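step=encode ok
step=design start
structure_in=
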């Protein structure tokens, strides 16, 4: 027996129509991304995170580099047809190339964010990257320089040349502040307060913090700003607000800062694996070994977690033997 039809709602009735939960329906006819479309997917992803999450330019560049490595590894395969096992093979490939555990973990995080974007755009129903972990965090003690090595490194630039005066200022700021190379590159003249002995830098997550500048760093910056910086500015033909400049008057890039540190290390006869971040590690290590409160070091480094700063609580074997000899009852 056919069901009776329900009477139509009267005009002006407030009767509500019950609906089920809204569902996202994936069209099976949507073409797969394919390797040829990978650059378009990457560009779309970068636009998405740039506007939706307002990420810093350095973070966007890190995503771009990570996805370039991923594209190289794909070798013609479709990224939408990979399994969690395939992505695990990719992380193993990165490890075999010599990347540290921390770098591999960052690549895994980049993959998870990228595949969530593919889900959002309808390329995938489930993300295989959610099933892939990056492994345990790397809590190895960072490499650092001794105080005498730092002195040799900072004294390496030629004080009689324009670039030497600039390079000395770069090295002094790196060690005095503990700033990252990208943070030093982003310093502006308005950020430096030499009479007060500090500068303000923009760190990860666009978080601003104050960092100290010791007497030697202040002197190096004053010498640079007084004698050489005006010469470099004149070559730019435009107003320049950056503190540290290239010889053409442009902002000193993060890559150029790495080159300055490497060149100074070679000039000082130090190992060739020294990089700007090692000065940051040395800054923290020397403060902690000198008795500085760990919370103060955390604030100066801009660490979100105290656990990251605790890596610098290591002490060298000579100091351990000295403490043992002074205080052990059966020394």
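sequence_out=
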């Amino acid at each position: 027996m056919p069901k009776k039809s329900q009477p139509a709602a009267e005009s002006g009735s407030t009767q509500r129509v019950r609906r089920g939960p809204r569902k996202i329906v994936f069209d099976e006819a949507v073409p797969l991304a394919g390797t040829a479309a990978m650059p378009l997917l990457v560009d779309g992803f970068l636009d998405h995170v740039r506007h939706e999450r307002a990420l810093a330019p350095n973070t966007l560049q890190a995503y771009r580099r990570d996805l370039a490595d991923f594209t190289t590894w794909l070798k013609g395969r479709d990224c939408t047809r990979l399994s969690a096992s395939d992505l695990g093979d990719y992380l193993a490939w990165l490890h075999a190339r010599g990347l540290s555990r921390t770098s591999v973990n960052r690549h895994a995080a980049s993959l998870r964010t990228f595949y969530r974007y593919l889900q959002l755009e309808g390329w995938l129903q489930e993300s295989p990257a959610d099933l892939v972990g990056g492994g345990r965090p790397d809590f190895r003690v960072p490499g650092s320089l001794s105080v005498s090595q730092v002195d040799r490194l900072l004294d390496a630039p030629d004080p009689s040349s324009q670039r030497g005066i600039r390079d000395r200022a770069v090295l002094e700021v790196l060690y005095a502040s503990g700033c990252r190379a990208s943070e030093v590159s982003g310093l502006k003249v308005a950020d430096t307060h030499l009479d007060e002995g500090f500068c303000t830098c923009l760190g990860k997550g666009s978080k601003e913090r104050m960092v100290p500048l010791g007497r030697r760093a202040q002197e190096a910056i004053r010498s640079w700003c007084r004698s050489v910086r005006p010469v470099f500015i004149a070559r730019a033909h435009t107003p320049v607000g950056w503190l540290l400049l290239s010889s053409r008057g442009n902002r000193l890039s993060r890559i150029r800062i790495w080159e300055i540190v490497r060149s100074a290390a070679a000039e000082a006869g130090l190992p060739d694996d020294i990089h700007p971040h090692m000065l940051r590690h040395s800054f923290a290590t020397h403060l902690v070994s000198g008795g500085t409160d760990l919370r103060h070091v955390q604030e100066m480094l801009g660490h979100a977690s105290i656990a990251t700063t605790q890596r610098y609580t290591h002490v060298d074997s000579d100091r351990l033997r000295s403490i043992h000899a002074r205080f052990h009852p059966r020394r």
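step=design ok
step=annotate ok -> The beta strands are 192-193, 198-202, 208-212.
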